[in-house]
Amino acid sequence: MLFVALVVPQFAQQTIFKLVMPYLRDGQTFVVLPGNFSSFIFKRMMEEAGINKKITFVDTTTIPHAVRVIGPGNIYILGKKTALSAASLPAAEINTALDNLKDVLFLKVIPLKNVLEAGFSNPNMIIHVATATLGMGPMESRQGRIQFYAEGCSPSVAKVLEKEDEERIAVGNAYGLKLMTFIESVIRIDNIYNDTDYFKEGLNLEKLGLAGNEQRANFGVCTIARKGVIEVKVAFFEEGWEVPIYEEKFKGTDIEVIKIP
User: Fold this and answer.
1) 261, part of any domain
2) CA 228, 214, 165 angle in degrees (round to 5)?
3) In this predicted structure, what is the pLDDT of residue 101?
4) Rounded to whole angstroms, how far apart are CA atoms 226 and 242?
5) CA-to-CA distance for 206 and 179, rounded, in angstroms?
6) Is the same domain home to 210 and 156?
7) Do residues 61 and 84 make contact, with C-beta atoms less than 8 angstroms apart?
8) Number of separate domains in the chain
9) Pair 111, 173 in one domain
10) What is the C-alpha to C-alpha distance for residues 102 and 74, in angstroms, rounded to an integer?
11) How far apart are CA 114 and CA 105, in angstroms?
């Protein structure tokens, strides 16, 4: 079975797929990481272009690695996931597709009901869009020198995210999908990164590594998503926020750790 993997931000997916379409072959599995409902879009693009090939699309909910751009063509890998979720179009092909994908992705792939569920299960739509939009002022005035999660997710922004999440869950329910809440999904991501089952260990601040930061914990849905995340090429940390840990971690690299007064 021939696999094609498309790993680019959502804004570039249609552009690249348009270039790829003339070369599609029957029986291919086209994997998009992350999916972001791309299988629906690509299927429509094929129909509009008169391309009638038997393609199995696979949409994942995320990408295997957590990375930051540190320069043109360079990234810093923060961590690698051991599992992610995915669905296929047609949905009936999911088991066959995932059975073959395990030798390509080298991690556990959890099957979902359909690509609609996969799209709605991507937590990025909740945490990134509103946080970036509502925080555009300080982001621009400080030339991007901002902790996206720790500073961008203020209590007021968190309230917006919670309302967004409620709407996402409601839409999913209307389509017969039982979606995880944003909080549950980011805890599960944290489980994977830290090899810890916080649902068993406990969801208090100490277990989640947030003891002593109770005020930050009031940021609601943003707090857990922020845990352990750094911003590079320059990593910004407020006074007392684990700065020595990251100074040691990036010692000898071109990543500068700056304390914010």
Assistant:
1) no
2) 65
3) 79
4) 13
5) 27
6) yes
7) yes
8) 2
9) no
10) 27
11) 20
In the prediction, which pLDDT does 39 show?
95
- pLDDT averaged per 10 residues, the chain (length 261): 84 94 94 93 96 95 80 74 88 88 80 94 87 88 78 83 91 93 77 68 58 41 36 35 47 50 37
Could you tell me if residue 236 is inside a domain?
no
Residue 252 lies in a domain: no
Residues 46 and 100 in one domain: yes
pLDDT value at residue 204: 55
pTM of the model: 0.74
Same domain, 128 and 214: yes
Sequence-separated (6 or more) residues with CB below 8 Å from residue 112: 61, 85, 86, 87, 94, 118, 121
Residues 30 and 134 in one domain: no
Tell me: do 136 and 180 sit in the same domain. yes
- Domain match, 212 and 185 both: yes
Distance (Å) of CA 178 to CA 14, 116, 124, 168: 29, 11, 18, 11
Give the pair of three-digit tokens for residue 25: 């072959």
Question: Smallest Cα–Cα separation from 157: which of 131, 188, 124?
Answer: 131
* Cis check: omega of the bond before 34, within 30 degrees of 0: yes
Bridge partners of 118, per DSSP, are none
The runs of H, that is alpha helices, within the chain are: 10-20, 38-48, 94-105, 115-120, 124-127, 129-134, 136-141, 155-174, 182-194, 198-201, 214-217, 221-226, 243-249
**Containing structural domain, residue 41:** 3-66+81-118
Whether 235 contacts 246, CB under 8 Å: yes
Q: Does a structural domain hold residue 260?
A: no
CATH of the domain at 98: 3.40.50.720
| The pLDDT value given to residue 158 | 83
147 and 177, same domain (yes or no): yes
